[in-house]
């Protein structure tokens, strides 16, 4: 393919139609269309639902339908898109994408420092996959915040809010990672190695600052005390992110490198790394549930979430991948394990976010368990099924990651194995 050189980077000279209308890009567009429809659903429900007004209340204040409409006006009753239930599947997806993406970048930078030349050859593609997931996570949280909120956040800045805590970190972290990709693409390995340590520190910074941000938000409600009282949960986010990150690297290797001579060696390295972190995560799960809050642990292990926990998380993230990768074998087993840990990792994030919502412990609004809703009976288990609109946004965020990766690959051939000097 004909190339042009700009600032030392070789750029593929590719037509507009080949750049934007390949099959992979069409898949990304289809997923983005799903996300757009989901955003429309969310905005329609949040801002255009019919509610009662003062005139209606004055005409017939005891009408049950009017009471229901008043409840809609105050609290909202549109799935989990609810003023009283702010922790949503969008938050779960944002956390999953950010932690997994930064985990990929961390592992690649670590491999660069530890002189794993095989990973260094594929570093450009892996890092682009990581940064693509981070952008997918930011897309998700932007949808959750929505343009109206972000507009007023900029006009009336509160520097203690989550948005303003996130902004400086990503304004530093993302350019650093993009510069590292630039160094790799220009074969400037000496500087790429020097930048690996700051990338490692910043990747951990993403995890720690995100944990602090979520803890700050969770502490707004005393029911969600896990973040503030069990700092060891930081390690859960990091270790589980490494497992999911290795899943991303395994699938990326299968899709991009399976026809190359180094493929089996690369997959075996991913297999061994995944086996190590799956083992560490398994130990953490055992110890973690013996040390965290007993009510929360009981809810996850034996309550309404138990089936999802054991089948969707333990089986997919730990048990099945372990069986696939415990012994050396064909790379396809590592690919299957990678698919399992990606799905199971998301289930783990979902369980944690919804587990924080489901187990209320304060008595600010009533006796015993906290009441989220003035009109409802106090209950010991609070759970609201994700709304279809938000599910569609989560599905569509995958399209964001695919599109970003494919654009990088089409222009810069990041999927090529580059010799390590």
Question: Any overview of this molecule?
Answer:
By secondary structure, the protein is an all-alpha fold. The protein has a single domain (15-47, 79-412), classed as Formate dehydrogenase/DMSO reductase fold, CATH 1.20.1630. The chain contains 16 helices and two strands. A two-stranded antiparallel ribbon has the order 1-2.
Furnish the topology, listing elements before pairings.
Layout: E1 3-6, E2 9-12, H1 16-20, H2 23-47, H3 54-59, H4 64-74, H5 89-113, H6 117-121, H7 123-155, H8 162-185, H9 189-218, H10 226-229, H11 233-257, H12 263-291, H13 294-302, H14 306-325, H15 331-358, H16 388-412
Antiparallel strand pairs: 1-2
Helix pairs in contact: 2-16, 5-7, 5-9, 5-11, 5-15, 7-8, 7-11, 7-16, 8-9, 11-12, 11-15, 12-14, 13-14, 14-15
**Shape summary:** globular
Structural class, from secondary structure content? mainly alpha
Query: How many alpha or pi helices?
Result: 16
* Relevant CATH superfamily: Formate dehydrogenase/DMSO reductase domain
Rg over CA atoms, rounded to whole Å, is 23 Å
Span of the ends, CA to CA: 24 Å
Helical content band: over 70%
Counting structural domains, the number is 1
Give me a quick take on this structure.
With 421 residues, this protein is mostly helical.
Write a concise keyword list for the protein shown above.
single chain; 421 residues; mainly alpha; Formate dehydrogenase/DMSO reductase fold; two-stranded antiparallel sheet; globular
